[in-house]
Amino acid sequence: MANPSTEQEARALPRAQEETCGCLTEILSHFEGRKEELIPILQRVQEHYGYLPEDAMKKIAGFLQLPESTVFGVGTFYAQFKLVPSGRNIIRVCRGTACHVRGGARILREVEKRLGIKPGESTPDLEYSLETVACIGACALAPTMVVNNETHGEMTAKKAAEILEQFKGKGDEERA
Ligand code: FES
Q: How far, in Å, from the CA of 20 to the mean position of ligand 1?
């Protein structure tokens, strides 16, 4: 596989493809191979790749001499672990009570429509991931939406569409 020639290409490269650089071997070298190390290893792997690549989980199973089903089971059980890569921009729409009664569902529908994905999914170009949250702690501003780490309050479907358009514009500029 060719090495990315620019910083932009490097960011666009799915992290799982970095496996050829032996990163997983390096991560595992810090562990002894004890079964109780499974969760710390998964945490380190996710820190590195941003999610748990299937291939890495198989190798971890071999390293710990555990059935693959055990490793996959732990990876899917805990909410902290992601089995698919996240987009570069994380959109979180609040589904808490305060936001719900003030039209949070409309915001979510608008974002789903604009991005063409459902909560828990990422766009094919890995530009966006969509998540829902139970409450972001800004109920006075309901309905709310968080884009990366920025909270947007008193959302309307129109505002949500405008915010996503701005991001699309930025992404296009960066790629130009
Ligand atoms: S319920 Fe949405 S911010 Fe609290």
A: 43
Task: Say what the pTM is.
Answer: 0.67
- Strand order, beta sheet including 150-152: 128-133, 89-94, 145-147, 150-152
Closest CA to 170 of 115, 86, 88, 112: 88
Range of the domain at 33: 7-77
109 and 62 belong to one structural domain: no
Of 50, 77, 104, the domain-final residue:
77
Are 107 and 171 found together in one domain? yes
Does any ligand 1 atom lie closer than 6 A to the CB of residue 56?
no
State if residue 13 touches ligand 1 by the CB under 6 angstroms criterion: no
The answer as to whether 1 is a domain residue is: no
74 pocket-lining for ligand 1 (C-beta < 6 Å) = no
Same domain, 169 and 96: yes
Report how far ligand 1's centroid is from the alpha carbon of 81 (Å).
24
pLDDT tens per residue, range 136-159: 999 999 999 999 989 999 999 999
Average pLDDT of every residue of the chain:
86
d(CA 119, CA 77) in angstroms, rounded, equals 18
What digits encode the pLDDT tens for the residues 17-57? 444 458 899 999 999 999 999 999 999 999 988 889 999 99
